[in-house]
């Protein structure tokens, strides 16, 4: 397994260093902008002290559409990183960023898990070891199918270059069901993304053919500690179930992050989320799906909340529903990434002296 840490942040305050996560020594400034052309609401089902210096607002659209079983909020696709941003006084200020300093993130919360159902009946169910690494419910799989249809109908499946997934049963089932291929055939050389009946789900195998790569990343796991539903299995148990998912970025086979008697503080989740966004800038892919958890998304996105217009803040920072998808643009204002532009053109090729107009000969048969 590869090492991922470059610096250490303690997420426990005076309570010790039970949650130490590698993060850059100085947090770079990141800007999130919502891009909800592909927004999908899914199923209906804290104020942080640490600030990370976000400095832009988001532009919502009044356009919306709905259909049976789902609701979609839409914005026009912007093919350049130019956005009209509303200031706090209601004015409009243009904001312009180089395209190669932007990435599009399609953020997805997992579909309904068994633990979600049990906790709605009794919140103390979260402490039950019977919910260890809880899988999806049958209703959760229906939510996966609906989101998959939306992803294909919108054309999003043809745009995504990478799927990042939290290494938990419910998130990997969701990721494979939404972004994976159907119709896997035994005996072919290509590994399946998920074998049949993984996690007792009564599903056939999902193919990795014609799909983006899938990589498991621990940084986007749910709130750690105490609740068994948020404790993962060993990597060696997951690999036979999800053969085509890349687990090489996970340091240890066993779950060393989850603690029995200490719950990760909200600030620790936020710091881990910022670390995750910074890590994304080490990737070459420009359009990425992230399948993760409600708590992780809430605390990560809320850390940017002070930079938004009040009307935008709720749209970005509210809790995700099960199997909800929100598309956002992340801007590299801290120059973390190093990829050059593939569309910029320097001009003046070939170079030569600028001739005065009189020296330029008019082509024959041309009108003046």
TrEMBL record:
<dbReference type="InterPro" id="IPR050275">
    <property type="entry name" value="PGM_Phosphatase"/>
</dbReference>
<comment type="function">
    <text>May play a role in carbohydrates metabolism.</text>
</comment>
<dbReference type="Pfam" id="PF00300">
    <property type="entry name" value="His_Phos_1"/>
</dbReference>
<feature type="region of interest" description="Disordered">
    <location>
        <begin position="342"/>
        <end position="368"/>
    </location>
</feature>
<dbReference type="InterPro" id="IPR013078">
    <property type="entry name" value="His_Pase_superF_clade-1"/>
</dbReference>
<dbReference type="InterPro" id="IPR029033">
    <property type="entry name" value="His_PPase_superfam"/>
</dbReference>
<protein>
    <recommendedName>
        <fullName>Phosphoglycerate mutase-like protein 1</fullName>
    </recommendedName>
</protein>
<dbReference type="GO" id="GO:0016791">
    <property type="term" value="F:phosphatase activity"/>
</dbReference>
<comment type="similarity">
    <text>Belongs to the phosphoglycerate mutase family.</text>
</comment>
<dbReference type="GO" id="GO:0005737">
    <property type="term" value="C:cytoplasm"/>
</dbReference>
């Amino acid at each position: 397994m590869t090492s991922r840490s470059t610096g250490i942040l303690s997420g426990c305050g005076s309570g010790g260093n039970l949650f130490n996560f590698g993060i850059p020594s100085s947090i770079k400034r990141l800007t999130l902008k919502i891009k909800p052309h592909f927004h999908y609401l899914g199923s209906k089902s804290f104020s942080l002290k640490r600030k990370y210096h976000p400095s832009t607002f988001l532009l919502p659209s009044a356009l919306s559409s709905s259909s049976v079983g789902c609701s979609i909020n839409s914005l026009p696709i912007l093919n350049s990183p130019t956005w009209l941003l509303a200031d706090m006084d209601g004015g409009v200020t243009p904001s312009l960023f180089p395209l190669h300093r932007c990435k599009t993130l399609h953020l997805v919360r997992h579909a309904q898990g068994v633990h979600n159902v049990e906790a709605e009946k009794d919140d103390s169910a979260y402490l039950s070891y019977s919910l260890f690494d809880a899988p999806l419910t049958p209703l959760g799989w229906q939510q996966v199918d609906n989101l998959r249809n939306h992803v294909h109908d919108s054309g999003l499946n043809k745009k995504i270059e990478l799927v990042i997934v939290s290494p938990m049963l419910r998130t990997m089932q969701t990721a494979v069901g939404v972004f994976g291929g159907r119709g896997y055939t035994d005996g072919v050389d290509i590994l399946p993304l998920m074998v049949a009946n993984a996690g007792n789900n009564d599903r056939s195998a999902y193919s990795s053919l014609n799909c983006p790569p899938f990589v498991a990343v621990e940084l986007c796991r749910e709130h750690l500690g105490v609740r068994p539903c948020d404790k993962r299995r060993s990597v060696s148990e997951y690999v036979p179930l999800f053969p085509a998912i890349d687990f090489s970025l996970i340091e240890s086979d066993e779950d060393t992050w989850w603690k029995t008697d200490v719950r990760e503080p909200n600030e620790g989740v936020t710091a881990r989320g910022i670390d995750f966004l910074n890590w994304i800038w080490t990737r070459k892919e420009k359009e990425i799906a992230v399948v993760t958890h409600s708590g992780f998304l809430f605390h990560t996105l809320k850390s940017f909340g002070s930079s938004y217009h009040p009307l935008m803040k709720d749209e970005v920072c509210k809790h995700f529903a099960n199997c909800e998808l929100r598309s956002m643009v992340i801007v590299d204002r801290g120059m973390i990434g190093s990829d050059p532009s593939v569309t910029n053109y320097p001009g003046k090729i070939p170079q030569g002296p600028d001739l005065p107009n009189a020296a330029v000969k008019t082509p024959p048969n041309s009108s003046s």
